[in-house]
Amino acid sequence: MAPSLHPLIDNGLTKGSENFPGGKLHCHCPTNKVEVTITGNVLHNHACGCSKCWKPAGALFSVVGVVPVANLAVTANGDKLKIVDESAAIQRHACKQCGVHLYGRIEKEHGFKGLDFIHVELSDEKGWQEPQFAAFVSSIIEQGFNPKDMPEVRNKFHSVGLETYDVLSPALMDALSTYAGQKSGALKL
Ligand SMILES: N[C@@H](CCC(=O)N[C@@H](CS)C(=O)NCC(=O)O)C(=O)O
Ligand SMILES: [Zn+2]
Ligand SMILES: [Zn+2]
């Protein structure tokens, strides 16, 4: 049987809705769930194979996207959150009890500062933007995936219409490089 990439991808993509108003994310605790309220849709939603992004049980990939910081609020049981790795660029806030990552925030100077990273499968609402591409695909090997099976993984992404990259997509890499070039002064626009 083919491995699960992610429940939002395995059986094909469900397109998001225009003018989706947003919704609530919940952790997996049976009671006293951490709740995060998102205004508006997620942007740049994508699969991520890196070792740091939260994945549901049995999935090889995370599905992660961004929202402006101003569009995210912790609305219940925020005292259960802790930062997974203080030294990472993305400060991932996870539930201490169930381990689910509710949001990741960039606090240091970075091309994506001002954006929070979220996992829309933590919401019951339908209409979130569907994944747009797959990033950090080769990184699953670092976590124990056999490199000989990589063609199957990339083929599966392509079969649902997603392009695969081993870092981020060209658009996001260009945005990061634009930020770096402007910061150093080498790029003047
Ligand atoms: N191969 C590495 C890649 C990690 C990585 O660079 N992740 C990307 C995509 S989420 C990133 O921007 N990380 C910044 C961070 O985790 O703070 C791994 O799997 O751990
Ligand atoms: Zn929890
Ligand atoms: Zn990642």
Automatic annotation (TrEMBL):
Q: Which Gene Ontology molecular-function terms are recorded?
A: S-(hydroxymethyl)glutathione synthase activity; zinc ion binding
Catalysed reaction, written as an equation: S-(hydroxymethyl)glutathione = glutathione + formaldehyde
Query: Which terms under GO biological process does the entry name?
Result: formaldehyde catabolic process
Note one Pfam family from the annotation.
GFA
- Which Enzyme Commission number(s) are on file for it? 4.4.1.22
Cofactor, how bound (note): Binds 2 Zn(2+) ions per subunit.
Which prosthetic group or cofactor does it need? Zn(2+)
Query: What domain of life is recorded for the organism?
Result: Eukaryota
Cite the entry's keywords alphabetically: Lyase, Metal-binding, Zinc
Residues the record lists as binding Zn(2+) 1: C27, C29, C95, C98
Q: Which positions does UniProt annotate for Zn(2+) 2 binding?
A: C48, C50, C53
Identify the metabolic or biological route this protein is part of.
One-carbon metabolism; formaldehyde degradation; formate from formaldehyde (glutathione route): step 1/3
Entry keyword annotation includes Cell inner membrane: no
Q: Which PROSITE patterns match?
A: CENP_V_GFA
Q: Which residues form the CENP-V/GFA domain?
A: 20-166
**Principal EC category:** lyase
Q: Which InterPro entries match?
A: CENP-V/GFA, Formald_GSH, Mss4-like_sf
Question: What's the family?
Answer: Belongs to the Gfa family.
What does this gene product do?
Catalyzes the condensation of formaldehyde and glutathione to S-hydroxymethylglutathione.
Please give the name of this protein.
Answer: Putative glutathione-dependent formaldehyde-activating enzyme
